[in-house]
Amino acid sequence: MVTASTSAADAMTDPDRLLHPDEARAIVLGTAKPLGVERVALTEAAWRTLAEPLVAGEDHPPFPAATMDGFAVVADDGSPWREVVGAQMAGLDLALEVSPGLAVRITTGAPLPAGADAVVPVEATEMVDDHVVVHQEQIAPGQYVRPIGADLRQGDPVLDAGTVLGPAEIGLIAGLGWTPVPVRRRPRVSVLSTGDELVQPGQPVAPGQVRDSNRFSLVAALQTVGAEVVWSGHAPDERDPLRALLAERIAASDVVITSGGVSMGELDLVKALLPELATVRFRRVAMKPGKPLNFATSGETLFFGLPGNPVSVLVAFEIFIRPALALLAGRPDPERPRVPVTLAHPVPPTDRTEFQRAIVRVDAGGRLMATTTGGQASSRLASFVGANALLVIPPRDTEYAAGERVDALLVAPPLGSAR
Ligand code: AMP
Ligand code: MG
């Protein structure tokens, strides 16, 4: 039964509507749900996303520990001379006891013997036969002792779900004995270059042909975000084999990324075939480069049909695919920092939101200054080299002047001021 509200919803989701990039992003990010959980060994967990919160199951340290090599003593026993009655090394608990007039030799990290409440560092002592002489006027109770639970108390929240596991986080997990580690599954991604004109590496290039670069730049981009590239390849502009390949990759992947074949040409078959294989959400975005961007879903699989120009591919990756993959991987905050920057030179007007590749530097006064990377043609991949920002240039009729402020998405840290 067709109701008025269904047709209104259909109108709102007309895939041919020209969308603002923010609207297109909202659609993409709205479809990207965290993937399932798997348990992996600590050595496999780096840079994955924690799927469950980590709560300290025990105190850390679990015993009062020496933080210096020296002697465990009773702080205020009044005598500079103490008889050394044993040695407590890290890793052992010999059940030694210290009382006034006695001391136990101790190493950093070793448990403090019963009765002792302070450690005198070896530098402040001198051995005379089997006695230690302490050259320290006042010994404060607790000096050079790390009490039970000083770092973490049992029950303390340690890491939130969604935390990306770097070295410190992995170390905390290891220190609390949590293994295997529950993490989000890595997104399985397939990458397909389409186009009869494309030549694969190592093959001779005939007149009119071009070498496939998108497949390799996309695989590299995917590697930087921890996605698992399960397949990458090339397909000619032939309807039946292309349909079969797309169907296979959609079934086998969390994300499928194609390049080429989404413009207005006769051989733009990805665009033509996609409605048979998936629900097309949009295929036109008012952005430059990358206007004919097809986004579709099939079950849980996200499909990005990118245009063929190499810069369009990487801009679309940055604006749409990278944040979507971050959400799939369970990260709560997929956004790049978006900051106002000052243009170091004029920028020509544009009719769509333009994402210009730029180098952002902090100048001597602490201002972020942006210089674009030269020619911004969507075929000129060199415009990405060295870029640490995408300037977001809204459409308007007049030139942007040097000194004007625009927003920038920082894809790498700003550079320091030029010397
Ligand atoms: P298309 O979107 O298929 O019309 O392609 C637009 C432009 O990008 C054409 O000049 C293509 O030759 C070029 N192109 C398409 N795919 C690739 C690729 N995988 N690597 C490099 N250039 C490509
Ligand atoms: Mg093509």
Explain this structure to me?
The chain has 419 residues and is of the alpha/beta class. It folds into four domains: 177 residues, Molybdenum Cofactor Biosythetic Enzyme, Chain A; 56 residues, Molybdopterin biosynthesis moea protein, domain 2 (Alpha-Beta Complex), CATH 3.90.105; 82 residues, Beta Complex (Molybdopterin biosynthesis moeA protein, domain 3), CATH 2.170.190.11; 73 residues, MoeA, C-terminal, domain IV (Beta-clip, Beta Barrel), CATH 2.40.340.10. 20% of the residues lie in helices and 28% in strands. The chain contains seven helices and 26 strands. The strands form seven sheets. A six-stranded mixed sheet has the order 7-4-6-5-9-8, with no helix packed on it. A six-stranded mixed sheet has the order 16-13-17-21-20-18, sandwiched between helices. Helix 2 packs across helix 7 and helix 5 packs across helix 6. The protein is elongated and about 95 Å long. The chain starts with a helix and ends in a 9-residue tail after the last strand. It binds adenosine monophosphate and magnesium ion (MG).
Summed up:
The protein is α/β, with parallel strands linked by helices and 419 residues long. The chain has four domains: 177 residues, MoaB/Mog-like domain (Molybdenum Cofactor Biosythetic Enzyme, Chain A, 3-Layer(aba) Sandwich); 56 residues, Molybdopterin biosynthesis moea protein, domain 2; 82 residues, Beta Complex (Molybdopterin biosynthesis moeA protein, domain 3); 73 residues, Beta Barrel (Beta-clip), CATH 2.40.340. It has a six-stranded mixed β-sheet with strand order 7-4-6-5-9-8, with no helix packed on it. A six-stranded mixed β-sheet has the order 16-13-17-21-20-18, with helices on both faces. Strands 22-24-23-25-26 form a five-stranded mixed β-barrel.
